[in-house]
Every structure is written in C-alpha cells, then in structure tokens.
Amino acid sequence: MKVEIFTIGKPRLRFVRDGVEEYAKRLQRYSSVALRFLENPEAQLRGSEGAYRVVLDERGELPTTAEFAGRVRGWKLSGVKRVAYLIGGADGHPDAVRQAADWTLALSRLTLQHELALLVLLEQLYRVETLLAGHPYHRG
C-alpha cells in the first residue's frame, strides 16, 4: 500500500527535519512513503484525489496505536492501494478538506504545531508497521 503525506509547508525546525528524515527512512522497509510539501489546501485535495484520505484534526477520532494498526491492517486486507494523510498548516484545514476526509484522525486532543504533527504521524506509522510485522519496536 502506498502512503502519501500531504503537508502544508516544509519543516523549518531542525529537530523536526531530522526526525522526519529518520522515520521516513525507517518506514521505507515496510511500505512506499512519499512526503509532499505543498503551499495550499487545494493542492492537497488535487494531489490526494483517488486515495483514501485521512485528515489530521484534533477533533477527529482518537485511536490507540493498536486500533490505528487494526485500521491500517483492514485497509491492506481490503485492497486499498493508496492512503493520503493530510496535515494542515498553521490555521488548520478549511471545511472543504475536512469534508473530503474518508477518516478524520486526531493524534492528540491538544492542538499540535503542524511540523510536530508530521513527526508524530511518521513515528506512529512506523510503530504501526512494526506492530503489524511483529517486531519489538512496539511494546505497549
């Protein structure tokens, strides 16, 4: 299953850039992951057309890591070919993006700075993949 992450703007914080690079590299062992740094939400909608869209928003569903892994497993088993995760910019998502979601995912009930949301998402995707593969990275 191909994974694409559409985020508004490139990370400016060095520690985030380093973390994004690390987890993107780790994830390549499990699935095809592409990061798309865009300028506006309209580009997110165009780029994610035809994919199963997961919009990140603190008002979304707040699964445990095991529940998230179960959902990813279900997508794989049902033949979903492409999943697009959409991360908003500093002002979040416009209504059009939220309405286009197939699933709205919250990483936390806290509002996360969008660069941190990208890093947390990548770490959780890596954790999910290791859990599904039976590797010891996921311990809880």
Descriptive account of the structure:
With 140 residues, the protein is of the alpha/beta class. It has a single domain, classed as Alpha/beta knot (3-Layer(aba) Sandwich), CATH 3.40.1280. The protein has helices at residues 14-27, 41-47, 65-77, 95-99, 114-133; strands spanning 2-8, 32-38, 52-61, 82-87, 103-105. The chain has a five-stranded parallel beta sheet. The longest helix is centred in the last third of the chain and has 20 residues, at 114-133. The model has no long low-confidence stretch (mean pLDDT 95).
Question: What CATH first level would be assigned?
Answer: Alpha Beta
Label the structural class.
alpha/beta
Number of domains: 1
- Tertiary shape: globular
Segments where pLDDT lies below 50 for 5+ residues? none
Mean pLDDT: 95
> Which percent band covers the strand fraction?
15-25%
The major β-sheet equals: 5 strands, parallel
CATH superfamily: SPOUT methyltransferase, trefoil knot domain
* CATH topology (fold) name: Alpha/beta knot
Largest sheet, spatial ordering of strands: 2-1-4-3-5
Order of helices and strands: EHEHEHEHEH
| Overall strand count | 5
Q: C-alpha Rg, in Å? A: 14 Å
Q: Mind telling me which CATH architecture this is? A: 3-Layer(aba) Sandwich
Discrete helix count: 5
Report the helical percentage. Answer: 40-55%
Whole-Å distance between the termini? Answer: 25 Å
Defining traits:
Alpha/beta knot, about 40% helix, alpha/beta, about 140 residues
Quick synopsis:
The protein has 140 residues and is an alpha/beta fold. The protein has five helices and five strands.
